[in-house]
Design goal:
Largest sheet: none
Main location: mitochondrion
Radius of gyration: 13 Å
Number of helices: 3
Family: Belongs to the complex I LYR family. SDHAF1 subfamily.
Strand content: under 5%
Keywords: Chaperone, Mitochondrion
Helix content: 55-70%
Subcellular location: Mitochondrion matrix
Oligomer: single chain
Protein name: Complex 1 LYR protein domain-containing protein
Distance between the termini: 35 Å
């Protein structure tokens, strides 16, 4: 397997953290739907070129902000 760049590692880390955060929420809160939404969001943006650093960094910042909000214990569900 090829070595991953720093940005690639950051994207994979964000992806794993999103799935973990959704797993921590009670199933009744719609966590399963939220996991699917996050996976769809990552798949939708897979077409971003790996050399388009500005877009990747923007999406990482956006994803980290969304994750931070969702990890808040007071937040039970997020709708798109």
């Amino acid at each position: 397997m090829a070595k991953l760049s720093g940005l690639q590692r950051d994207v994979l880390s964000l992806y794993r953290n999103c799935l973990r955060a959704a797993r921590k929420k009670p199933e009744a809160s719609g966590a399963q739907r939220q996991r699917r939404n996050w996976i769809e969001e990552f798949e939708k943006n897979i077409s971003i070129g790996k050399r388009d650093f500005g877009a990747i960094e923007y999406m990482l910042r956006k994803g980290h902000r969304q994750l931070e909000i969702y990890e808040d214990p007071g937040i039970r569900d997020i709708h798109r």
